[in-house]
Write a structure and sequence with these properties.
475 residues; mainly alpha; Amino acid/polyamine transporter I; two-stranded antiparallel sheet
Length: 475
Amino acid sequence: MISLIEAVYRFLWGNLVTIPLPGGSELGLPLLVLILIPTGIFYTVRTRVLPVRMGREILKVSLDPKKEEKGAISGLQSLIVSTATRVGMGNLAGVVAAISAGGAGAVFWMWVTAIIGQSTAFAEGVLAQQHKQKDPLYGGYRGGPAYYIHDFMEQHVYRKKRRRSIIAVLFAISGLICWCGISQVISNSVSSAFHRAFQIPPLYTTIALVIIAAVIVLRKNATVRVLDIMVPVMAGMYFLITIVLVLMNIQALPSVFARIFTEAFGFRQVAAGGFGTVMMNGVKRGLFSNEAGSGSAPCAAAAAASDHPVKIGLTQAFGVFIDTIVICSCTAFIILITPASETAGTEGMDLLQAAMHYHMGEFGVIFVAVVLWLFSFSTFLGILFYARPNVAYLFGDRWLPQYLYKILALIMLFIGGLAAYTTVWDLGDVGIGLMTIFNVIALWPMSGDVIRALKDYESAHGKKKRAKTAEQKES
């Protein structure tokens, strides 16, 4: 079994295609990059660069707290839930790893990937809304890739009603495997950070983490209420602190941007044989920090009530912007404005803690540990919200499977806090890789539905705007 997991991991994450570059460098392209980048470009072109063209509308729709239906979550709440999982380890450890391996230039490629990923996230959100169902267990709505894959296969392949679709089942199983693996990664990261910052034994941190998580996730609808408070506070706190530190070192910003752009395209990287490393580290970390295309966030998008599916698609596009352009950039700037002598010989979370120690002293180390706890814990709550519709798709509308999966995730959370089992970590990566493949299988042929919905929204929006202008002229 372990050999099989490792083989699938290498197939999904290893370099499937290698392109030689000048200077003796090579550009290795994993299967998932070959799948996600073309998908993002495809939707960016088909939506006519939606993230740029509709930037003001994205902001307006995303920040609207209005609930369309009692019992269902709002578009803003669906954004908060999806942001809870996007804004996690990838914004801290992922960015650090990208800069450690690819230099400052990797940040530029993370930005590019985020712009492309916004279009993919938009498409996922629209499809999730178009194919959502009433949720008899939790109230409101449920859905996600398992549901829109099922509907597509039922209409275009089976051409008759089916209780389940093979690809939809495989997506749901892959998701549940992935989220169990991530549970272990979360608790291991938190217990390690608290041990470094406070010298608290991992056992105590893990017990506290599991108890708090159990109190929340084993209650029927506590998850969204907790995330409503937790996500804005944690993201706002991290953003505020990092912005203050950047402004205090604003004289270093021109050189930071110069490094980012120079190393992203610079001849020095090409000549040294490192351009491929710079680009691919930025692309990989960007793709899997914002989760666009993996099929996770649509599980939250489907739960929202909205008068038009495009509105939820726009909120999901904004979620990618928050994750990569805002939060990941904050982490990158903090590292890059720190003198190299202060971070020499460090990597991973030690690099970030060293940078924060330079700017804030011992409090900086503690701050990173606390923020990591908040980011990771919110991710755990978010992934269990994602699990709900997938458990229901596989096992029907019964409470027992829902609670059994939550208990399994809590057990994995406990085990991960005490020891790191790399096989289970690989299992999580295999799960998200398979989710992405099954999700993208549906994203391409269902693009027509997405574009028709976008045209309908823009047409209706244009009519409202023209009517408002006419009224203003008459008055």
